[in-house]
Amino acid sequence: MRALVTGATGLMGTALVTTLRAAGEEVIPLGSQEADLRDATVTDAMFARHRPEIVYHLAARVRGIMGNAGSQGDAFLDNVRINTNTVDAARKAGARKLVVMGSAAIYADSVPLPMREDDAWAGPPHRSEAGYAHAKLAMLAQLEAYREQWGLDYAYCISTNLFGPGDRFDERHGHVIPSLISKFHRAIVTGEPVTVWGSGTPTRDFLYVTDAAAALRQIGATGSGAINLASGQAVSIRAVAELIAEIVGYRREILWDRSKPDGQLRRAYDVSRLRALGVAPGRTLRDGLVETYDWFAAHTAEARR
Length: 305
Hints:
The protein is of the alpha/beta class. The chain has helices at residues 11-22, 40-50, 64-69, 72-92, 130-150, 176-190, 209-222, 237-248, 272-276, 285-304, and strands at 3-6, 27-30, 54-57, 97-101, 153-159, 161-163, 194-197, 203-208, 225-229, 234-236, 254-257.
């Protein structure tokens, strides 16, 4: 099927476009320069022009835990507009299926571990990312309503933390792995100590971006409804920081700034629906981190020349 990918220039979008094209599929990549999805008129016109058969909706306004926490209203409004416009435009343009990126931020603290897709509505999201998470939940509600009224098939991927080459290595507003890679690399260059936000005790699940792209392609072919997109392996932030330090070659003490938020304390996912589609990670966390750091170090060096 002719596939349109929103957010095609981001970490996940770049990997997915590469994966789909390698499989011989026709792909229409759509980045923010081609269309502002917050504008319904622009979005409708773009989808009417391309008339995709399947839409992979990855576009979002996201800035990591500190960025989302500091701009809850913007995070909610921008993402609601992006998602509502995209889903409606895809339906009106005749798309047969949507595969969208939700977020594990939708799960409440009270949800038992491992988190299961049926618990998406079991309680309010953690307050640190509530604006962003509620916008993602609103998209799930929209998709359920559109399936009931118009028979629109969808897969809603409840995505864990993704990482890999080409990520945004922003120490303040980026996600945890790219932020830490940049911090430890800078510490090697400057000789300064590394300070990590929070206590290091929260657990997270990390999925390498090319594994996520392969999973999305399979979900597009055979998956429907809500599906946890994760590795199925929970690891503490402290353990991740220590592993990155080892890979980078940082040998000094890691300092922990407990004045900064931890976010949701525990995340671990039931991936039985994903496994039932024949999807499993192709890389270990360590292997993915090594490839990501190698890419970052090479491109950082290029940027200095």
